[in-house]
Specification:
The complex is a heterodimer of chains A (about 400) and B (about 475). Chain A contains 17 helices and 14 strands. By secondary structure, chain A is an alpha/beta fold. In chain A, the strands form two sheets. Chain A has a seven-stranded parallel beta sheet with strand order 3-2-1-4-5-6-7, with helices on both faces. Chain A has a six-stranded parallel beta sheet with strand order 11-10-9-12-13-14, sandwiched between helices. Chain B has two domains: about 190 residues, 3-Layer(aba) Sandwich (Rossmann fold); about 160 residues, Glycogen Phosphorylase B (Rossmann fold). Chain B is built from 19 helices and 14 strands. The two termini of chain B are about 25 Å apart. The chains are: A alpha/beta (about 400), B alpha/beta (about 475). The interface between A and B is medium-sized, with 31 and 26 residues. Strand 8 of chain A pairs antiparallel with strand 4 of chain B, so a sheet runs across the interface.
Chain lengths: ~400, ~475
């Protein structure tokens, strides 16, 4: 049986954020397809205190030596490259890979490529590498760095692009989450690049009717936005949803779940519509699975307001499978273009039109998705191209 | 597309388990855990674990709920602190002595102050104050056990999800309902939502024998009235309790309530294990099997006085070689009994008191004992009688309350006022060779059959028409 060593830059057994979810389900789907999965998370333990598993290599000690220490936007790049340049870390890294004796190395995101490259360089017949890209990273970083007005952004982005190009070129096969990203990567390599968009799981939530996190009440109708603390989530919400707060009627609320809440709260306190937000916006912060399921069961609709950022939006699959009315942007539907015309899906890229969409969602009922549509959105379907790619490489 | 529940939901109340989390569970706490464990994962029921907290029922994540009802310490496999079985007279580490010397009086003082505080509050606000103090106690326990309530921690979130019940929902209560739930609020919730309530009733001792309890005024009376006014169905843990309930209903001019008898499971979920009896000399002595075992909270009603009197007399006879082993936490209003017990000649050598004991340790004591004694003045059931019989040990038990039911026709039943009878029976037992009560397991109630009955009852209620 083929053994795959999956390298991630976070713990994946109990996934919370998008990257963790994708890596978790990639491993699961490959295992269910008959492969042996050896998970090798390399990260700073202090960043995931409740990650539920220890890192194979802990980068905590070395983290103080990273480049661009004030630029958190590229912490994944600058921390993970320490696994290659810090000899103590690298030795642990190399020992762990060696001990795995895997047939295929699978890199989730490109950040550990320098360490993998150094290890492979010492071998005469290294195992093939499969690269799972979640983004065209240099573009995503550029957008974030420009927004944050970071000096030297061009140099950093050039480093990221070089890393991605090199990895894509060296990999026996790669996957991207959108056709557009796949086209970019295909231009860098002659090897196969497949599209495996983000998926979701089917949640059973109907029994959670009228079970609500404080301070929501059953008399309130709400639209839900779920997002991590990534800048595109914040910017999209701020630009598209905050201006629409005044259109909400009595008893209508916008509910935000996820760590983007903290960013929104800070900004509102600084220069936001304080009273409007107090009476119409509910920021829940990070929530557990049960809370999320309660929200999905009781929401009147889902908001997908992101206006930039790479890859396909993981939340889009989750929103689509729920059957709830959706108000989203064209960008949020990257990778899910064929679903834009579904009933109760509104796509608007202008804040004023988005506000109209929000009103429509409040007045709409949504409808259960057809079974075949649901199946298409599950990880088992969306990740099948990666299974096929691995199968080809393994044979 | 807003979701609507397709089938009735069972709101499984774990408030008692939350209040007792991480603690050695006995009696009703243990019962709640045993029943909840068997209900929680039943796919035939749509179960939502809940706790009553801050004037609302809160939904719990499944994993959190499981952690609350984990039956600890069932075996040494679970990495938990060592069970703290202590022989009262044995040497304690200095730090524990100091901690006990400070904390126990302090806890008693705080309890006394809290009770006085409640009394000083106008009656209409007393329940709110009592509930507030309970929440404060819960918060303090979390703090002291270093489970600081961090913002957005899973624990905070677990108590942050409120259930607004539907008419199709059924709430199942089998814990310390009088202690952890505000029934005035629950009653309103039932009337406004149509929620149906099923409860387990353990006994009506506070009504029948108020002198056994130090409870203030009409505290329990009010609780039992709420039970009969609000419950769709009441599971009674014995025929005696069921009869007591019917008498109470009749005495209070209420309409009959649907009742059903369930016998609590007697199967201890652990293999016998003596290792928590740390003193090897004590363990070896007990392993000889020459002791009488009395299991139950040390309080007036359990009638330890009778045993203390008997052993005071019997130990004067050098030929009487049966030790007395008491297992049970100190209960309420038991200071006099405890003082007498600790002052008894032979206390610490011929008379031993284990204040806490795991299931494994208790099972070992049942196996080793020569005889089990249960002289209680009244019981809703008398589980230790069944447990002892299940371990094949002969039992001498009281004829009060439901105890003869627990004796299953196998125990020797005596009037607890018949001191001479008890004395004679104990002496006879001590002189007789070791006996084994040899009956098949089908004679004893077990948790599986108990919960199967409960499930049938729950489904019956779910199938009845809802009142909007």
């Amino acid at each position: 049986m083929t053994k795959i060593l999956q390298l991630t830059t976070y713990p994946t057994r109990y996934p919370r954020h998008g990257g963790q979810l994708r890596a978790h389900h990639t491993a699961r789907v490959l295992e269910e397809s008959g492969y042996i999965l050896d998970r090798m998370p390399v990260f700073s333990q202090s960043l995931y205190p409740r990650g539920g598993e220890d890192p194979a290599v802990d980068l905590d000690q070395a983290r103080t030596k990273r480049r661009f220490r004030d630029t958190w936007q590229v912490m994944d790049l600058t921390t993970c490259e320490l696994a290659a340049v810090d000899n103590t870390c690298f030795q642990k890294f190399a020992d762990r890979i060696q001990a795995s004796d895997a047939d295929i190395l699978m890199l989730e995101e490109p950040w550990l490529w320098p360490a993998v490259w150094r290890w492979r360089d010492s071998l005469s017949a290294p195992p093939p590498v499969v690269y799972n890209a979640y983004n065209i990273e240099y573009r995503a970083k550029a957008a974030m760095l420009v927004e944050a007005k970071v000096s030297g952004a061009d140099d950093i982005c050039a480093d990221v692009e070089a890393l991605e190009r090199d990895l894509t070129q060296c990999a026996a096969g790669s996957s991207a989450t959108t056709a557009e990203d796949a086209a970019t990567m295909q231009a860098w390599t002659e090897n196969r690049v497949v599209v495996a968009r983000n998926g979701t799981i089917l949640r059973k939530v109907e029994h959670l009717h009228h079970i609500l996190p404080v301070p929501l009440e059953p008399c309130q109708k709400f639209l839900l936005f779920v997002g991590s603390g990534q800048p595109p989530n914040f910017t999209g919400f701020w630009d598209m949803v905050i201006p629409a707060l005044s259109t909400l009627r009595a008893g209508e609320r916008i509910v935000v779940a996820g760590s983007v809440s903290q960013l929104i709260e800070s900004r509102i306190e600084k220069d936001g519509p304080l009273c409007m937000a107090r009476d119409r916006l509910i920021l829940l912060g990070q929530v557990n699975d049960l809370t999320l399921e309660c929200l999905l069961c009781n929401a009147a609709g889902i908001l997908l307001p992101i206006t930039y950022g790479g890859g396909s939006n993981l939340k889009t699959a989750e929103a689509l499978i729920s059957g709830l009315p959706i108000v989203g942007t064209t960008h949020a539907f990257r990778g899910f273009e064929e679903y834009k015309s579904l009933p109760a899906v509104t796509i608007e890229d202008d804040p004023t039109a988005f506000a109209v969409g929000i009103r429509r969602a409040f007045n709409s009922k949504g409808s259960p998705r057809a079974i075949h549509l649901q199946k298409q959105l599950l990880w088992e379907s969306t990740l099948q191209p990666i299974v096929d790619l691995v199968s080809t490489i393994a044979s | 597309m807003k979701c609507m529940p397709k089938r009735p939901r069972l709101l499984l109340d774990l408030s008692t388990s939350l209040a007792w989390r991480g603690k050695h569970a006995v009696g009703i706490v243990r019962t709640e855990r045993e029943i909840a464990t068997r209900l929680l994962d039943d796919p035939a029921l749509c179960v939502i674990p809940v706790v009553y907290h801050d004037h609302a029922f809160r939904a719990l994540e499944l994993e959190f709920a499981r952690s609350l009802i984990a039956l600890v310490p069932a075996s040494a496999e679970v990495p938990l602190p060592k069970p703290k079985s202590r022989i009262r007279s044995g040497a304690q580490p200095i730090h524990r002595k100091v901690a006990n010397a400070i904390m126990q009086p302090l806890a008693r003082l705080i309890t006394a102050i809290a009770r006085e505080l409640i009394k000083s509050v106008p009656i209409r606000s007393r329940e709110e104050v009592r509930q507030s103090l309970l929440h404060a106690r819960q918060a303090l326990r979390q703090f002291s056990s270093r489970r600081a309530p961090v913002l957005h921690s899973p624990e905070t979130q677990n108590l942050g999800i409120v259930i607004y019940p539907q008419a199709t929902d059924v709430l199942f209560l089998c814990g310390l309902g009088w202690d952890v739930i505000d029934w005035r609020h629950l009653s309103s919730l039932r009337l406004t939502s149509g929620l149906r309530i099923i409860s387990v009733l353990y006994d009506l001792i506070p009504i029948k024998f108020p002198e056994f309890l130090g409870a203030p005024g009409d505290y329990y009376y009010n609780y039992f009235i709420h039970i009969i006014d609000n419950c769709e169905k009441v599971f009674c843990i014995s025929k005696r309790t069921e009869a007591d309930l019917k008498e109470f209903i009749s005495n209070n001019g209420r309409s009959p309530v649907s009742t059903e008898v369930i016998y609590l499971g007697a199967n201890l979920p652990a293999k016998p294990d003596p290792t928590e009896i740390i003193d090897l000399k004590v363990r070896e002595r007990l392993a000889r099997g020459r002791f009488a075992l009395a299991v139950g909270t040390v309080e007036i009603r359990k009638n330890h006085s009778l045993l203390i009197d008997l052993w005071d007399e019997l130990l004067a006879d050098p030929s009487f070689d049966l030790d007395l082993v008491i297992v049970g936490m100190p209960g309420w209003c038991a200071d006099d009994v405890i003082a007498r017990l600790e002052g008894l000649r032979g206390f610490g050598s011929r008379v031993l008191w284990f204040k806490q004991m795991s299931d494994a340790g208790l099972s070992w004591l049942y196996e080793q004992c020569h005889i089990s004694l249960f002289p209680s003045l009244y019981e809703g059931l008398g589980l230790p009688v069944i447990e002892a019989l299940q371990h094949g040990r002969p039992v001498i038990a009281s004829n009060r309350g439901a105890i003869p039911e627990a004796g299953l026709g196998l125990a020797t039943i005596l009037d607890p006022d018949d001191r001479a009878g008890w004395r004679a029976a104990v002496i006879a037992a001590s002189r007789a060779p070791r006996q084994v009560v040899n009956v098949g397991p089908e004679r004893f109630p077990n948790w599986e059959s108990t919960v199967a009955t409960i499930k049938r009852g729950i489904r019956d209620v779910m199938l009845t028409d809802t009142v909007a």
